[in-house]
Specification:
Length: 230
Amino acid sequence: MNSRVLKSALLPWLFFIARQIGVSQSFINLDFESAKVISDPTGAYYPYSIAITNALPGWSVFGTTQGDITYNDPALGSCAVTLWATNGLQISGKYSVLLQGGIGPEAYISQTGLVPTGTESLLFEAAPLSGVAVLSALEVSLGGQEIPYSALFTGPNYTLYGGNIPSALAGEVDQLTFTCPGGGVEGTANNWTIDNIQFSASQVPEPQVLGLTALGGLLFLRAHRRIASR
């Protein structure tokens, strides 16, 4: 077999191996702490413009000026993506992301990566932007499938949400997307701050089970207080 024939025979396999290596990267920067706040002098909102590659490494963005997002400078009613950067509005750490689904089709961030084997659910922390009406819910999808989620815990400045994912997606390369639908009018928008996304090996209880658990906890606490007061 001459070298040309050998090369032709090996190319498809080499391409397949390279593709598998390339797409099998795990999800990165799920807490947004890899951000680099470097103002882009060519940005439309300089000095608050940052290149997406610096602001949100690993993520793709839609609903903002092409190639840039802003930091600490949210839009006034338009669809946009903004980085909260150590200004007290972030949920935790130094950085969180604000999705604004205002005037326009939508705003979203998206990333393709390897869903860890054994994953049962997706967890994330989120909060609506204070003082702004929320017209529709934050949408979450994995592998093109919408992930229904519910509130699991309320913290000081956020709510922990969780939703079960189809078992077939575990161990697969899929696209994770957080979307704020648009369609709002000036002064009202669907604005959400999100942070600390993680894959979990535990299933999320159904909402009715969470409700019964919370009710049981309240009844137990009430009974305990009655006994203690006697």
